[in-house]
């Protein structure tokens, strides 16, 4: 490529990048929650967040090749994981109870990525195989501990899971009795936000509760894939504060 053509190409890329940044700035009513690469060097969040999400993907052990797989992303919000699953070859349905501004963000990213991810506004408790079918993989990350009826949600998720559930949530880490299946009271986000009753870890449950709840919901095999690496420190903090702590937990469950 000649120097003049390279300069023209670079100039075009710079203009495209600037144009996309301006569109993104005008759009920003709802904060982005995930680092979506929109192309032309524009990512919705900073490099630190990009590294954190890349680590989450690795820890959740999502298959690299999802060709010919159907994936349900429950609580998709911005669509970061939905678009990543599509990039890996899957046919994806994204669901959430988006606010209007949050849905606008999702649709903006979908357009810029030329994505074919399907989407439906549906509550996790209302998931029904007669309505949306069953999926090879159901992805359920960062949602369970926000819910008023977590066991009901897991039952609904089981009804649409045909192969694998990937669950990522906040697990309760108490000083004692961690092997007991217990869960913190949580009235759901709406009431918690208005009353202040979120306890710092929302509706976190012990890993024992999570496993027993998955079996009760109808899953037959449950594999814990990740526990917080700071668990011993968090147990100490729980002791001196007299309050359970929370850490990331990842589980794969099979029908």
Sheet with most strands: 7 strands, mixed
Uncertain spans: none
Structural class: alpha/beta
**% residues in beta strands:** 15-25%
Could you tell me how far the N terminus lies from the C terminus, measured between alpha carbons in angstroms?
56 Å
Shape: globular
Helical residue percent? 40-55%
* SSE order, one letter for each helix or strand: HEEHEHEHEHEHEHHEHE
Mean pLDDT score: 91
Instruction: Tell me the Rg in angstroms.
Output: 20 Å
Spatial order of the strands forming the largest sheet: 5-4-3-6-7-9-8
Give a quick precis of the structure.
With 255 residues, the chain is of the alpha/beta class. The protein is 40% helix and 22% strand. The protein has a 7-stranded mixed beta sheet with strand order 5-4-3-6-7-9-8. A two-stranded antiparallel ribbon has the order 1-2.
Describe what this molecule looks like in 3D:
The protein is α/β, with parallel strands linked by helices and 255 residues long. 40% of the residues lie in helices and 22% in strands. The chain is built from nine helices and nine strands. It has helices at residues 3-27, 47-60, 80-87, 100-112, 129-132, 150-159, 189-195, 207-217, 231-241, and strands spanning 37-39, 42-43, 70-74, 91-96, 118-121, 135-141, 161-173, 221-227, 245-254. The chain has a seven-stranded mixed β-sheet. It has a two-stranded antiparallel ribbon with strand order 1-2. Helix 6 (150-159) crosses helix 8 (207-217). The longest helix has 25 residues, at 3-27. The radius of gyration is 20 Å and the shape is globular. The termini are far apart. The relative contact order is 0.11. The model has no long low-confidence stretch (mean pLDDT 91).
